[in-house]
Write a structure and sequence with these properties.
The protein is mainly alpha-helical. It folds into 2 domains: 45 residues, no CATH class; 71 residues, no CATH class. It has 3 helices and 2 strands. Strands 1-2 form a two-stranded parallel ribbon. The longest helix has 21 residues. The structure holds flavin-adenine dinucleotide.
């Protein structure tokens, strides 16, 4: 068993860190005044978006891929659908041109094996 860890704040980052530390066999204390989920926490909401489209920023795109893998793992591990894969729709008034976030995202996502659609 590793050293005791104290994490302050049971929002999504504190909870994620606690789960990861537990997985690494550390004893974890998560401290929060409550109630949980706390009504003032940024994590507390009806919905949050996790998306892959970050233009030409490949590092951020990869982080988003890993985040989605993590949410899908949580769906399996907890036996509850916390994460819903819905797809994402971008709308523009003019056709996407080189250098726009839509065009760059389309190129990066296609190259990384995703299947974005253009209509
Ligand atoms: C309106 C809005 C929309 C957003 N939309 C998105 C989105 O679509 N996609 C996305 O990825 N991100 C989104 N974000 C950002 C995301 O919600 C935050 O980055 C994330 O929830 C932060 O989590 P956290 O655990 O750091 O903080 P929080 O969720 O704020 O949790 C902090 C916790 O610390 C506790 N705490 C506070 N003070 C103390 C103390 N002194 N001692 C002990 N505990 C304490 C609180 O009770 C709370 O439970 C959005 C944020 C907002 C505000």
């Amino acid at each position: 068993m590793g050293m005791d860890r104290v994490l302050v704040g049971a929002g999504v980052f504190g909870v994620t860190a606690a789960l990861e530390l537990r997985r690494r066999r550390h004893a974890v204390r998560l401290v929060d005044p409550g109630p949980l989920p706390h009504p003032l926490a940024a994590s507390t909401d009806i919905s949050k978006v996790v998306r892959l489209e970050y233009g030409a920023d490949e590092v951020y795109t990869e982080l988003a891929e890993r985040a989605i893998e993590g949410w899908e793992r949580w769906n399996r591990d907890f036996g509850a659908r916390l994460y819903h894969r819905t797809g994402l729709l971008f709308l523009r008034r003019s056709p996407p041109a080189p250098g726009t976030i839509e065009e760059a995202s389309f190129e990066v996502l296609s190259r990384r094996g995703h299947r974005p659609e253009r209509r």
